[in-house]
Amino acid sequence: MTQPEDGGGSNRELYALLHMKDVATENFQRICEAYEILTDEYKRQIYDIYGMEGLASGLELGPKLNKVEEIKEELERLKRKREEEKKAAHFQPSGVILAQLSVPSFLAGHGIMRAMSMNSEIQSQISKNNAIAIGGTLAVKGSDGDAAANAVFRHQLSSVSSIEIMASAGLRGLIGVQTSRQLSRHANATMGLAVSLRDGSINLSNSWSRQLSTTSNANIELILGSDSSVAVGWRKKDQKMAAAGEIRIGTSAIGAFGRYTRRFSSKSHGRITGKIGSNALELEIGGGRKISDFSTVKMLYTIGIQGIYWKLEFHRGAQKLVVPIFLSRHVNLGFAAGAFLIPTSLYFTLKSLVFKPYYRRREKQQALENMEQTRAQVQEAKAAAAKAQQLLQNVANRKRNKQLEINGLVIIEAVYGNPKVIKSIDNPEEKNDELASQMLDVTLPLNFLVSDSGQLKLHEGVKKSGIMGFCDPCPGETKKLYVKYTYGGNRYEVEVDDLQELILPQEEHRI
């Protein structure tokens, strides 16, 4: 049989293979979900009453519920919570309180408060395509004060374009219109027109942005009016760091700025910012720490031609309190060094002696409480996983021996569970007997999943607790999978998140 000149036959074969791959992935996910439900009496009870809706609502994440009435009550609670979250998404308040303090003014007997301002805004999604934002600003400096009010109406013209009509009265009274459009998959453009209510001046603005990669984008901005300027900027952000930079040339000033933020962990980060130009020369160093699910504290140190500052920030949801503390107008080397080193040393001392031990004790106590609540559920799940592993044992051992003969993929050690417990595997001193129960040995089921060609693949988006021979050893906690394996006479190791894809072997895993 000859192949068509246009390659139609090969294309059809390719499409068929791709379709088969998609179907296989989908079936694999369904089998994992079905196995997880069938082997868990608690989840099976929820499924029998409410089907997949009950499981998708998050009931499996809570403590074990023995009675049908308890399950119904929990589902209703989760439904109410979801409705409240949906309403909150259509009504979003935000605000900033700024309190400027001055140490030199206080020492001179003129009071410590230099200036104060308060900004508040409420955004509301009034319909599918329309949104409105209303806000205001109050500012006081010495015996002078001012106020402003603003409103913005946004209409979604289509899936790729929108228009905003804005008006402001007070400090900078103006009316304006702005339209945005997605030019392509990776490019956007915005054009605006604003008229000042004070002097009637007109300002035109144009900006273009383009996504350079999955983690970076660049933009160009052009402003024509009483203070014309052109700016070129760049931004990059990934899980560990964020960076941004801009060069701006205008009729009144020329300058550039750069910012780099580094995440040390899921709760803390450091930041350095620099500004240079015709009217600015400034360096800012600092960092922040997340103290709860919705709250963050930051402290920044600034030195420049305007003097030396400390800046304290407290973020709670969309609300922010900012307290700049002016220390000195004169940049003295000794004073500048002391202003940086004293609070930095104090922070690290308190962190190591007070905060870190406190949070460790609190996290440990919460983990132990959660373990106590889910102990029976985990014991049942582990018993079911042990039975499943017994069924897999003969085939897994045969596959392992075959891979050993051909120097192929052999799983030496694999554990699944609490990341903190997994980290303590190589440090017996840090190992805790209570927390050790939050980990499950899954070496055998992974050897079972190794293909005859010496490969292993766990699909993205599928909870690993649903794999045959696995279970959830720590309900409600973050989970990871740690694997040590050999291939071709070399040793490898890798750690992945619960929903992350895993493909073995890979050269980047080599020790």
From TrEMBL:
InterPro entries listed in its UniProt record: AtJ13, DnaJ-like_C11_C, DnaJ_domain, DnaJ_domain_CS, DNAJC11-like_beta-barrel, J_dom_sf
Coiled coil region boundaries: 61-88, 361-405
Keyword check for DNA-binding: no
Localization per Swiss-Prot or TrEMBL: Membrane
Keyword field: Chaperone, Coiled coil, Membrane, Transmembrane, Transmembrane helix
PROSITE patterns, per database record: DNAJ_1, DNAJ_2
Gene3D superfamilies, per database record: DnaJ domain (1.10.287.110)
Domain J: residue ranges: 1-51
Principal cellular location given in the protein's record: membrane
Record bears the keyword Coiled coil: yes
A Pfam family annotated for this UniProt entry: DNAJC11_beta-barrel
GO CC terms, sorted: membrane
Transmembrane segments: 333-354
The name this protein goes by in its record: J domain-containing protein
